[in-house]
Amino acid sequence: MTATRLVSGGRRQRGVAFIIVIWLMALLVVLLGAFALIARTEGMQARHLYDATVARYAAEAGINQATYFLSIPDPQLRWIPDGREYAFAFDDAEIQIRITDESGLIDLNAADMTALTELFEGIGVELDQAAALAAAIQDWRDADDLVSPNGAEDNEYAGEGVPWGPKNAPFDMVSELLQVLGMTPDIYRQMETAVTVYSGQSRPNLAFAPYEIILAIPGMTPELAQQIIADRHAWDPSSGMPPPVLPDGSPLMAQGGTGTYSIESRATLPNGAWTQVDATIRLGGGGVSGMAYTVLRWQDGDSL
């Protein structure tokens, strides 16, 4: 009996030890799997950071390339800042550039009520709301407390429960529009790329104007506006062909401008990773010796 119990006890101990070994092996497998997952995740994060950095610097190279071609005296070689796309390779990256002369946009500090109202109507805002928004912009930027017809000063902001009033000073940034009474995020998104604070001109130069401003021309249709933009982008000054025209016969001559440009530079790597840099620059160093341009606005855009 004693020998039988000893043998039985030894078997139980070996069985327990075997189960413990199995559990330890399973734990090791889990730990190794977790370590491999963490290492793989960190590797992917490092790769993404590397790709984003490479693409960002390639996009910055695009800004510099655009500045160079905007500075060329020969009009047949100089890039046209009317929103058309220019593409070139930089190392392994493919760069797409779009440039808009700021004179083609509506200046929030200089545009009259008619230009502002037409812009709002062009993006689909009803006339009454468009006129009210234009008047609110006028009251935001003027120095007095007098309410423009359909406009908004301190009392109107307070009446809507808004904890601020008009600035009573010029716009410093386009994004200030979001604080203007009556402005909505949806309207702002539709008009953001059509306005500026840098041109100082009361009316946009249609040779450089984006689709939203062409569409704001009275009597314009979306189809005709798209065709005008397409014809303008297809026109090459070196071809000797006449420039495209508006419905009234006015030629869209891509010349003049302010020397101040908004540039979108998107760099795409061979693996599909990309980064976009948006900048507003003014040619010349602004008194700083050796500088090719002055940065007025710089925004690192989306990346993937």
Please sum up the structure shown:
The protein is built from seven helices and seven strands; from the N terminus they run H-E-E-E-H-H-H-H-E-H-H-E-E-E.
SSE topology sketch:
Layout: H1 2-70, E1 82-90, E2 93-101, E3 106-107, H2 113-122, H3 127-141, H4 154-159, H5 185-191, E4 195-196, H6 211-215, H7 222-234, E5 260-268, E6 274-283, E7 293-303
Helix pairs in contact: 2-3
Number of helices: 7
Secondary structural class: alpha+beta
Report the top-level CATH class of the domain at 106-203. Answer: Mainly Alpha
Instruction: Say which CATH homologous superfamily of the domain at 106-203 is assigned.
Output: EpsJ-like
Biggest sheet overview: 5 strands, antiparallel
The ordered H/E elements are HEEEHHHHEHHEEE
Entry keywords:
single chain, 304 residues, alpha+beta, Ribonucleotide Reductase Protein R1, domain 1, five-stranded antiparallel β-sheet, two-stranded parallel ribbon, 7 helices
Overall description:
With 304 residues, the protein is of the alpha+beta class. The protein has a domain at 106-203: Ribonucleotide Reductase Protein R1, domain 1, CATH 1.10.40. 41% of the residues lie in helices and 17% in strands. It has 7 helices and 7 strands, in the order H-E-E-E-H-H-H-H-E-H-H-E-E-E. It has helices at residues 2-70, 113-122, 127-141, 154-159, 185-191, 211-215, 222-234, and strands spanning 82-90, 93-101, 106-107, 195-196, 260-268, 274-283, 293-303. Strands 1-2-5-6-7 form a 5-stranded antiparallel beta sheet. A two-stranded parallel sheet has the order 3-4. The mean pLDDT is 87.
